[in-house]
């Protein structure tokens, strides 16, 4: 009988859903350590961690949510692993759109980034009444695909056909161990490996 694999619990931003599933498979193949994922908006995950949700690693879509849970992070394990860009799905002219889906601009990184961009462009005041806040960036994209919104500001990695915002804010994904073990540290290390970087690039992410 084969011994049961150790399973790491990984909390990760919703925008990483597809790429991390592939990376998780590669990690398990290389290490014989299984991984299970909890994907959600980074602010939701931070709240879960604060409430005592079990987990080994957290990968956030911004620095702010990782800062929020800093006291739960194992010292010396935090590192920036990726960058990304904002993009507009659906109607590109946001002034023409009747409804604009954003991940919650009060808390969820994709929405916070989007609001920062629109404020810098002087558009937020004109557009904020059109905004439909969603739970995470994937839900914002789904709103456009379902016809419930005309436009959404998402990450370029969420929709290959979206219009990339080249002058948007700097988007950084940090990762850190939140329950110390050699396996958890190994997973965070693996995120910066050549094998993982190849997979990240395939999905449009920019490894650090």
* Whole-number mean pLDDT: 95
By helix and strand content, what is the structural category?
A: alpha/beta
What percent of residues are in strands?
25-35%
Largest beta-sheet characterization: 6 strands, mixed
The CATH homologous superfamily name of the largest domain equals Periplasmic binding protein-like II
CATH topology of the largest domain: D-Maltodextrin-Binding Protein, domain 2
| Tally of discrete structural domains | 2
Radius of gyration of CA atoms, rounded to a whole number: 17 Å
Helix content: 25-40%
Shape: globular
Q: Order of SSEs, N→C? A: EHEHEHEEEHHEHEEEHHE
CATH class of the largest domain: Alpha Beta
Q: How far from one another are the termini?
A: 41 Å
State the helix count. Answer: 8
Query: Unreliable runs, pLDDT <50, ≥5 residues?
Result: none
Total number of strands: 11
| CATH hierarchy: architecture of the largest domain | 3-Layer(aba) Sandwich
Neighbour order of strands in the largest sheet: 2-1-3-10-4-11
Notes on the protein architecture:
The protein has two domains: 7-83 and 172-207, Periplasmic binding protein-like II (D-Maltodextrin-Binding Protein, domain 2), CATH 3.40.190; 86-164, Periplasmic binding protein-like II (D-Maltodextrin-Binding Protein, domain 2). The protein is 35% helix and 25% strand. The protein is built from eight helices and eleven strands. The protein has a six-stranded mixed beta sheet. A five-stranded mixed beta sheet has the order 7-6-8-5-9, sandwiched between helices. β1, α1 and β2 form a beta-alpha-beta unit. The longest helix is centred in the first third of the chain and has 15 residues, at 17-31. It starts with 6 loop residues before the first strand and ends with a strand.
């Amino acid at each position: 009988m084969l011994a049961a694999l150790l399973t790491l619990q990984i909390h990760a931003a919703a925008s990483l859903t597809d790429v991390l599933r592939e990376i998780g498979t590669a990690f398990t193949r290389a290490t014989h350590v299984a991984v299970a994922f909890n994907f959600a908006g980074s602010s939701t995950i931070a709240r879960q961690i604060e409430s005592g949700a079990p987990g080994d690693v957290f990968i956030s879509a911004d620095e702010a949510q990782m800062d929020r849970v800093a006291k739960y992070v194992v010292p010396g394990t935090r590192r920036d692993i990726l960058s990304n860009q904002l993009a507009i799905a659906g109607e590109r002219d946001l002034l023409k759109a009747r409804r604009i889906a954003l991940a919650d601009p009060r808390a969820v990184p994709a929405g916070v980034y989007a609001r920062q961009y629109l404020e810098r462009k002087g558009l937020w005041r004109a557009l904020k009444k059109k905004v439909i806040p969603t739970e995470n960036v994937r839900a914002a994209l789904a709103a456009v695909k379902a016809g419930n919104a005309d436009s959404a500001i998402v990450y370029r990695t969420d929709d290959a056909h979206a219009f990339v915002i080249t002058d948007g804010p700097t988007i950084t994904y940090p990762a850190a161990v939140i329950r110390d073990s050699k396996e958890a540290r190994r997973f965070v290390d693996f995120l910066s490996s050549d094998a993982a970087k190849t997979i990240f690039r395939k999905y449009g992410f920019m490894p650090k």
